């Protein structure tokens, strides 16, 4: 019988943890395919909104994040994953993480599109750390919703935001911080 040293224990534990958290290439391909299907469905819905095709044509790039899910009770959080299009091609994948504090009650899901109207705004977004500070109001009931707000992104850069496809029930009047992170899919 051999004694188990700390180093041996950590090695066995590390291998066990890696085995539990590793994903096969097939899992990654399936997740990317499912995400691409969600992005395409949101893009088709976006094309049906009056004025959106003109924004897409004028933009240097469009970030589409489908199915952003938000839940809150005074404070709230939201998360979603999507893709950055330059022309008709997906060039990068991004995640959106949002936290807010204020008057928030309920849960909702929505799609978000960011239109980068200048090449400088697109370059700044791709190189920046992604934080956005904002204040806004959102009311969603069923599939109809209204959102309004001013963010530092809108004030400082020529970036337009469109929130569409809202569903759920949430009332939100809060200060929020959002972070967009590049992810590998």
From TrEMBL:
<feature type="domain" description="Ysc84 actin-binding">
    <location>
        <begin position="99"/>
        <end position="179"/>
    </location>
</feature>
<dbReference type="InterPro" id="IPR006311">
    <property type="entry name" value="TAT_signal"/>
</dbReference>
<protein>
    <submittedName>
        <fullName>Twin-arginine translocation pathway signal</fullName>
    </submittedName>
</protein>
<dbReference type="Pfam" id="PF04366">
    <property type="entry name" value="Ysc84"/>
</dbReference>
<dbReference type="InterPro" id="IPR007461">
    <property type="entry name" value="Ysc84_actin-binding"/>
</dbReference>
């Amino acid at each position: 019988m051999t004694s188990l040293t700390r180093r041996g224990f950590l090695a066995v534990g590390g291998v066990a943890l890696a085995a539990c958290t590793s994903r096969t290439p097939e899992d990654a391909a399936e997740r990317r395919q499912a995400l691409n299907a969600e992005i395409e469905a949101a893009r088709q819905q976006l094309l049906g909104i009056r004025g959106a095709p003109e924004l897409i044509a004028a933009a240097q790039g469009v970030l589409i994040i489908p199915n952003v899910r938000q839940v809150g009770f005074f404070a709230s959080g939201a998360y979603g994953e999507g893709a950055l299009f330059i022309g008709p091609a997906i060039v990068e994948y991004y995640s959106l993480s949002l936290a807010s504090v204020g008057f928030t009650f309920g849960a909702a899901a929505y799609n978000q599109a960011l239109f980068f109207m200048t090449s400088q705004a697109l370059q700044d977004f791709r190189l920046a750390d992604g934080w956005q500070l904002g204040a806004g109001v959102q009311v969603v009931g069923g599939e109809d919703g209204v959102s309004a707000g001013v963010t530092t992104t809108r004030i400082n850069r020529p970036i337009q935001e469109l929130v569409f496809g809202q569903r759920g029930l949430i009332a939100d009047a809060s200060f929020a911080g959002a972070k967009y992170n590049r992810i590998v899919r």
